[in-house]
Design brief:
This protein has about 140 residues and is mostly beta strands. It has a domain of about 80 residues: Translation factors (Elongation Factor Tu (Ef-tu), domain 3, Beta Barrel), CATH 2.40.30.10. Helix content is about 0%, strand content about 35%. The protein contains no helices and ten strands. β4 and β5 form a beta hairpin. The protein starts with about 50 loop residues before the first strand and ends with a strand.
Length: about 140
């Protein structure tokens, strides 16, 4: 059996790329479009009965999204089941009727000033949103 001769690999010189002269093209002129006054979508305003007023009763301190419940710290006044409330904040602004109130996981009918209650809400709320009671 004959052995093959293994030769050394010959390295070929690598050609360096020639530098190409870069010519800058003049910037294309962009036409400026005049924008007409954009129409802002009309903000929804809550329809509160005439003669009614709002009384701030508390502030949202926490929100539980899975059960749609908010923790409300009652700072001024009281809140009862059946009251109509408005919740206003940076992104929330809606009204609803109080269907359920809980204090320490126990359903109650009325909560007084200073209590931290759980309140069932229909929409997402955030911390520091204000809770108002509609007085008729």
């Amino acid at each position: 059996m004959k052995k093959k001769k293994v030769g050394k690999a010959v390295k070929k010189p690598v050609k360096k790329a020639q530098k190409k002269a870069v010519t800058k093209k003049p910037a294309a002129k962009v036409k400026k479009k005049t924008v007409a006054a954009k129409k802002q979508p009309a903000k929804k305003t809550l329809s509160i009965p005439s003669g009614a007023s709002l009384e701030e009763v508390g502030i949202i301190t926490h929100y539980f999204p899975k059960v749609d419940a908010a923790v409300v710290k009652l700072t001024k006044g009281s809140l009862s089941v059946g009251d109509k409330i408005v919740i206003k904040g940076h992104t929330s602004d809606f009204k609803e009727k109080v269907e359920s109130i809980q204090l320490d996981h126990v359903p109650i009918q009325k909560a007084e000033q200073g209590a931290e209650i759980g309140l069932k809400v229909k929409s997402k709320v955030r911390e520091h949103d204000a809770v108002y009671k509609i007085l008729t």
